[in-house]
From TrEMBL:
Xref: PROSITE patterns: FERROCHELATASE (PS00534)
Compartments where located: Mitochondrion inner membrane
Organism, as annotated: Pieris macdunnoughi
CDD domains named among the record's database cross-references: Ferrochelatase_C, Ferrochelatase_N
InterPro entries in alphabetical order: Ferrochelatase, Ferrochelatase_AS, Ferrochelatase_C, Ferrochelatase_N
Protein name: Ferrochelatase
EC number in record: 4.98.1.1
Single GO MF annotation: ferrochelatase activity
UniProt keywords, alphabetically: Heme biosynthesis, Iron, Lyase, Membrane, Mitochondrion, Mitochondrion inner membrane, Porphyrin biosynthesis
Annotated function: Catalyzes the ferrous insertion into protoporphyrin IX.
Annotated PANTHER family: FERROCHELATASE, FERROCHELATASE, MITOCHONDRIAL
One GO process term, biological-process aspect: heme biosynthetic process
Amino acid sequence: MLSLICQKNAKILPQLLCNVRCASKSHKPKTAIIMLNMGGPQTVDQVGDYLHRIMTDRDMIQLPVQSKLGPWIASRRTEEVKKKYQEIGGGSPIYRWTDLQGKLLTEALDQMLPESAPHKHYIAFRYVPPFTDDALQAMEADGVERAVIFSQYPQYSCATTGSSLNAIADFYKDKKQPNIKFSLIERWGTNELLATVFADRIKEKLKLFDGSVRDDVMIMFTAHSLPLKAVSRGDTYPHEIAASVSATMSKLQVPNPHRLVWQSKVGPLPWLQPYTDDAIKSYAKKGVKHMILVPIAFVNEHIETLHELDIEYCDEVAKEAGVKQIERAAAPNDHPTFIAAMADVVSKHLTTGPSVSRQFLSRCPHCVSARCQSSKEFYKKLCNYIECSKEM
């Protein structure tokens, strides 16, 4: 397996992935890997529609009188957000990274699992093209036999993975389901190789600090925050993020202190704290002058790493607070071990299942959403949960 290659001979994997980049598929795909993510505007012209879709998606964010307030907020923020995208090159690189990750993943799977090959990836973004509907239509047109729905949010939240999964349920609501064997990977935040990637990214930055302060550098794991209303409902996201942090620190094996902080709050309601920018300021006041920010919930670079972390926090906030040195660990991107992590997750899923986890099918203790309930029932049928349970 690719994960074994990565662990036993790290020198082989980069050459393998180099060969993978040059490879091309010539056969009809047998197995689809549907990669779910929110996406990001590739050009500034897409920003307005992108924000409109986010602000009107009640799975992502809930606002009073959302059909009117959501579009108003999106319109008010469009020009400001456009400027941010212009400052990082004119658009989000999330499609480019996801496409590359998908190509490397499927080529690795072709070598690991010839019985389910050829594998082909389909990008299913929530708020920009290619949309979820586009991915499903393309997959059906290709005539695949099996489809793995693979969330690119390693830690599950009803607002992120949940929204994308609801979009798939909406697509098939009034349609006959195709003759495809579906299965679902909705969370994988504690995968051993994923933790290794984050640990490696931190080590890369620790080397940049002088040896006299290296062990004292504060490692700040930062993740997209969540409204406290969702946390109180029982959304598993906070503890799944914390589990990823714990797994990473176990791999890292350094004496440095570390904390989990939260970024990207939207709207007036209370969200998970401490906020990343506030934490930078507070630590600076306490005399902590050396820090690393680690985007623990993101698998590729996008606006929240390239602008919010790099420009707003590492440059502007840290300088104003008097921080002597702050570094930002890179997202996994195309790190060889990250490709191995994805291949490890998917190959184990394809060979041993289950087709859908009981964890996903369970609901939050205070969930009263009829939409959530209907979605769970949909995935029981889509992934043939009853048959899977009998087999196990």
